[in-house]
Amino acid sequence: MNVTASSAATDTETENGSAHRFSSRSIRSFVLRQGRMSPAQRRCLDEMMPKIGIPYRQEALDLTAVFGRTAPKILEIGFGMGETTARIATANPGTDYLGIEVHSPGVGALCKLIDESSITNLRIIQHDAVEVLCNMISDDALAGVHVFFPDPWRKARHYKRRLIQPDFVALVAAKLSPGGYLHCATDWENYAEWMLEILSASSLENTADGFAPRPAHRPPTKFEKRGLRLGYGVWDIVFRRPQ
Fold this sequence. Notes:
The protein starts with 8 loop residues before the first strand and ends with a strand. The chain has eight helices and nine strands. It has helices spanning 39-52, 63-67, 83-91, 104-117, 129-135, 166-175, 189-200, 222-229; strands spanning 9-13, 19-23, 73-77, 96-100, 122-125, 142-148, 176-186, 205-206, 235-240. It has one domain (9-240): Vaccinia Virus protein VP39 (Rossmann fold). The chain is α/β, with parallel strands linked by helices.
C-alpha cells in the first residue's frame, strides 16, 4: 500500500461542517505509481465496480443505505491488492467494510476476490482517502479505521509526506463514533515510533501500553510472515476514541 500526505496546510471546512487543517493545494493521501493490470483484474474491475463501487462525490454518504442494513462500518485506507481486506470482510460478516484505493490493479484484484468469494459486506471507493473522509464520511459514522502498511517515506526529508500526521489523525478522530478505533500497522520501526508519538498527542486514547499486540481482526500477510521469520519487526498501534 502506498499512501502519503502533503504539506502547506491551511484551514478548510468539510461538507459535513467539520473544520480541519489541510493543504491549500489538492492534498492527496497517495502517490500515483504505474502498475500493470492482468486481463482478469481489468475484467473484474469493469464488471464489478458498477455493482460494488461507490463513485466519489462531494456529499455525505448514507452508509446504512449503501450496505442495506444497520451494522458497524469499518473504513480501510489503501488496501493494496486487497487480500487482507477480503479476508477480514469474509471473517466478519456482521460488519460492513469500505475500502479506499486509487491504484487500478489493486482495485481490480479486490473486485476479483469479491466476485470469487461472493463477499457481500465490502464496498470500494477509488479515490483519494482524504477527500473521501472530508466530503463523504459523516462525523461519528465509523466504528473503526484501518491503515495497514502505508508508505513509510524512509528519508527524513520526506517525513512530511507520511499519511499519519496530526491533522489527518484529527480528521479520522472526528469520523469515529465514541469507542471507535484507529488501527495502524507498519513494518518500519521509525514510522511506528512516529505514529505512536502523533497518536499519543491526539484526542484518541491508546488501547495498550505503547505498541499493541496484533489484534485478531488483522490477519498477517504472507510478506509479514516471511519478514518475521527473517527477524524483521511489525508494529501495531491501536487508539480509540473515548466513550
